[in-house]
Amino acid sequence: MANGDESEQVRELQARLKQLKLMTVAPTGFYGSKTTAAVKSFQSKNGLDATGGVDDKTWKKIQSSSKKPTADELRPPTVNEVAAPDPRCMTGRVMCISKESRTLAWMIDGKVVSTMDVRFGSENTPTREGVFNVGWKAKEWTSTIYHTPMPYAMFFSGGQAVHYSADFAARGYAGASHGCVNVRDKGKLSKLFDDVQVGDKVVVYW
Question: Which residues form a coiled coil (predicted)?
Protein backbone atom coordinates (compact mmCIF):
# COMPACT_ATOMS: atom_id res chain seq x y z
CA MET A 1 0.00 0.00 0.00
CA ALA A 2 1.28 3.47 -0.81
CA ASN A 3 0.30 7.12 -1.26
CA GLY A 4 -2.60 7.44 -3.73
CA ASP A 5 -4.09 3.99 -3.06
CA GLU A 6 -7.74 3.59 -2.12
CA SER A 7 -9.06 0.29 -0.76
CA GLU A 8 -10.64 -1.53 2.19
CA GLN A 9 -7.12 -2.64 3.18
CA VAL A 10 -6.09 1.03 3.45
CA ARG A 11 -9.14 1.60 5.67
CA GLU A 12 -7.98 -1.25 7.94
CA LEU A 13 -4.44 0.17 7.98
CA GLN A 14 -5.77 3.59 9.06
CA ALA A 15 -7.93 2.04 11.81
CA ARG A 16 -4.89 0.16 13.15
CA LEU A 17 -2.73 3.31 13.02
CA LYS A 18 -5.47 5.10 14.96
CA GLN A 19 -5.36 2.37 17.63
CA LEU A 20 -1.60 2.99 17.86
CA LYS A 21 -2.27 6.74 18.36
CA LEU A 22 -0.41 7.56 15.14
CA MET A 23 -3.49 8.98 13.38
CA THR A 24 -6.21 11.17 14.84
CA VAL A 25 -8.56 11.31 11.84
CA ALA A 26 -10.99 8.47 11.20
CA PRO A 27 -10.39 5.96 8.38
CA THR A 28 -11.36 7.10 4.89
CA GLY A 29 -9.88 4.28 2.79
CA PHE A 30 -7.72 6.78 0.90
CA TYR A 31 -3.94 6.71 1.43
CA GLY A 32 -2.86 10.36 1.55
CA SER A 33 -0.26 12.54 3.26
CA LYS A 34 -1.57 11.89 6.81
CA THR A 35 -1.42 8.11 6.33
CA THR A 36 2.07 8.38 4.79
CA ALA A 37 3.30 10.43 7.78
CA ALA A 38 1.76 7.95 10.26
CA VAL A 39 3.36 4.96 8.50
CA LYS A 40 6.76 6.73 8.45
CA SER A 41 6.46 7.39 12.18
CA PHE A 42 5.60 3.72 12.85
CA GLN A 43 8.51 2.54 10.70
CA SER A 44 10.99 4.85 12.47
CA LYS A 45 9.87 3.64 15.92
CA ASN A 46 10.15 -0.01 14.89
CA GLY A 47 13.52 0.00 13.15
CA LEU A 48 12.05 -0.32 9.65
CA ASP A 49 12.97 1.71 6.55
CA ALA A 50 10.90 4.89 6.91
CA THR A 51 9.54 4.97 3.36
CA GLY A 52 5.95 5.95 4.23
CA GLY A 53 4.74 3.02 2.11
CA VAL A 54 3.57 -0.33 3.51
CA ASP A 55 5.54 -3.37 2.39
CA ASP A 56 4.96 -6.92 3.65
CA LYS A 57 7.32 -6.48 6.62
CA THR A 58 5.68 -3.21 7.75
CA TRP A 59 2.15 -4.61 7.37
CA LYS A 60 2.97 -7.71 9.45
CA LYS A 61 4.51 -5.53 12.17
CA ILE A 62 1.46 -3.19 12.20
CA GLN A 63 -0.87 -6.21 12.41
CA SER A 64 1.07 -7.74 15.31
CA SER A 65 1.14 -4.38 17.16
CA SER A 66 -2.63 -3.77 16.89
CA LYS A 67 -5.89 -5.68 16.95
CA LYS A 68 -8.37 -6.41 14.18
CA PRO A 69 -10.50 -3.24 13.88
CA THR A 70 -14.19 -3.41 14.74
CA ALA A 71 -16.89 -2.27 12.29
CA ASP A 72 -17.22 0.99 14.26
CA GLU A 73 -13.47 1.59 14.09
CA LEU A 74 -13.49 1.04 10.33
CA ARG A 75 -16.53 3.25 9.72
CA PRO A 76 -17.10 5.62 12.63
CA PRO A 77 -20.41 7.50 12.72
CA THR A 78 -18.66 10.72 11.67
CA VAL A 79 -15.51 10.61 9.58
CA ASN A 80 -14.53 14.17 10.45
CA GLU A 81 -13.75 15.24 13.99
CA VAL A 82 -16.26 17.85 15.11
CA ALA A 83 -14.82 21.32 15.65
CA ALA A 84 -15.30 23.29 18.84
CA PRO A 85 -18.73 24.93 18.44
CA ASP A 86 -18.89 28.57 17.43
CA PRO A 87 -20.03 30.73 20.40
CA ARG A 88 -23.16 31.60 18.38
CA CYS A 89 -24.19 27.91 18.55
CA MET A 90 -24.33 27.75 22.32
CA THR A 91 -27.93 28.86 22.88
CA GLY A 92 -31.21 27.50 21.56
CA ARG A 93 -31.73 25.00 18.75
CA VAL A 94 -28.92 25.25 16.18
CA MET A 95 -27.48 23.48 13.19
CA CYS A 96 -23.84 24.38 13.88
CA ILE A 97 -21.90 23.96 10.61
CA SER A 98 -18.09 24.16 10.54
CA LYS A 99 -16.38 24.66 7.19
CA GLU A 100 -13.00 23.85 8.71
CA SER A 101 -13.91 20.42 10.12
CA ARG A 102 -16.61 19.82 7.45
CA THR A 103 -19.16 18.79 10.06
CA LEU A 104 -22.69 19.65 11.13
CA ALA A 105 -23.50 19.42 14.84
CA TRP A 106 -27.18 19.57 15.82
CA MET A 107 -27.16 21.37 19.17
CA ILE A 108 -29.84 22.15 21.71
CA ASP A 109 -28.99 24.59 24.54
CA GLY A 110 -25.24 24.09 24.09
CA LYS A 111 -25.34 20.27 24.01
CA VAL A 112 -24.45 18.26 20.87
CA VAL A 113 -27.34 15.91 20.00
CA SER A 114 -25.93 14.46 16.76
CA THR A 115 -23.13 15.06 14.26
CA MET A 116 -22.63 14.32 10.57
CA ASP A 117 -20.15 14.94 7.75
CA VAL A 118 -20.96 17.72 5.29
CA ARG A 119 -19.48 19.28 2.17
CA PHE A 120 -19.95 22.74 0.72
CA GLY A 121 -20.09 24.72 -2.50
CA SER A 122 -17.11 25.27 -4.78
CA GLU A 123 -15.21 28.57 -5.16
CA ASN A 124 -17.67 29.60 -7.88
CA THR A 125 -20.77 28.68 -5.87
CA PRO A 126 -19.70 29.17 -2.24
CA THR A 127 -21.86 28.31 0.76
CA ARG A 128 -22.68 31.55 2.56
CA GLU A 129 -21.33 32.05 6.08
CA GLY A 130 -23.16 33.68 8.95
CA VAL A 131 -26.22 33.21 11.14
CA PHE A 132 -29.48 32.19 9.45
CA ASN A 133 -32.79 30.54 10.28
CA VAL A 134 -34.55 27.60 8.68
CA GLY A 135 -37.09 29.28 6.42
CA TRP A 136 -38.83 26.17 5.13
CA LYS A 137 -38.39 22.40 4.74
CA ALA A 138 -39.20 19.84 2.06
CA LYS A 139 -38.73 16.08 2.41
CA GLU A 140 -38.81 15.58 -1.38
CA TRP A 141 -37.44 18.47 -3.43
CA THR A 142 -35.75 18.94 -6.79
CA SER A 143 -33.61 22.01 -7.44
CA THR A 144 -35.43 24.39 -9.75
CA ILE A 145 -32.07 25.74 -11.02
CA TYR A 146 -29.94 22.58 -11.31
CA HIS A 147 -32.74 19.97 -11.58
CA THR A 148 -31.02 17.68 -9.09
CA PRO A 149 -32.81 15.87 -6.24
CA MET A 150 -32.49 17.51 -2.81
CA PRO A 151 -34.14 15.11 -0.32
CA TYR A 152 -34.63 16.26 3.28
CA ALA A 153 -33.99 19.89 2.29
CA MET A 154 -33.94 22.53 5.03
CA PHE A 155 -33.58 25.96 3.41
CA PHE A 156 -31.73 28.65 5.37
CA SER A 157 -30.47 31.28 2.87
CA GLY A 158 -32.26 31.81 -0.44
CA GLY A 159 -31.81 28.61 -2.44
CA GLN A 160 -29.13 27.25 -0.07
CA ALA A 161 -30.21 24.33 2.08
CA VAL A 162 -28.94 21.46 4.19
CA HIS A 163 -29.91 18.32 2.25
CA TYR A 164 -28.97 14.72 1.45
CA SER A 165 -26.63 14.24 -1.51
CA ALA A 166 -26.32 10.87 -3.27
CA ASP A 167 -23.29 12.30 -5.08
CA PHE A 168 -21.56 13.10 -1.77
CA ALA A 169 -22.39 9.58 -0.51
CA ALA A 170 -20.82 8.10 -3.65
CA ARG A 171 -17.89 10.42 -4.40
CA GLY A 172 -17.11 12.06 -1.08
CA TYR A 173 -15.06 15.24 -1.21
CA ALA A 174 -14.11 14.70 -4.87
CA GLY A 175 -17.19 16.81 -5.73
CA ALA A 176 -18.86 19.95 -4.37
CA SER A 177 -22.35 21.36 -4.07
CA HIS A 178 -23.79 24.41 -5.83
CA GLY A 179 -23.75 26.24 -2.49
CA CYS A 180 -25.87 23.93 -0.36
CA VAL A 181 -24.65 21.98 2.65
CA ASN A 182 -24.56 18.34 1.50
CA VAL A 183 -24.97 15.45 3.97
CA ARG A 184 -24.04 11.87 3.03
CA ASP A 185 -25.60 9.93 5.91
CA LYS A 186 -29.26 9.61 4.91
CA GLY A 187 -30.36 7.89 8.13
CA LYS A 188 -28.91 10.59 10.37
CA LEU A 189 -30.26 13.37 8.18
CA SER A 190 -33.79 11.95 8.10
CA LYS A 191 -33.84 11.99 11.92
CA LEU A 192 -32.43 15.54 11.95
CA PHE A 193 -35.08 16.60 9.40
CA ASP A 194 -37.79 15.35 11.78
CA ASP A 195 -36.22 17.20 14.74
CA VAL A 196 -35.52 20.57 13.10
CA GLN A 197 -38.33 23.11 13.10
CA VAL A 198 -38.85 26.09 10.84
CA GLY A 199 -37.24 29.06 12.61
CA ASP A 200 -34.38 27.04 14.15
CA LYS A 201 -30.98 28.71 13.88
CA VAL A 202 -28.27 27.81 11.35
CA VAL A 203 -24.67 28.97 11.94
CA VAL A 204 -22.12 28.49 9.13
CA TYR A 205 -18.55 29.40 10.12
CA TRP A 206 -14.85 28.73 9.59
Answer: none
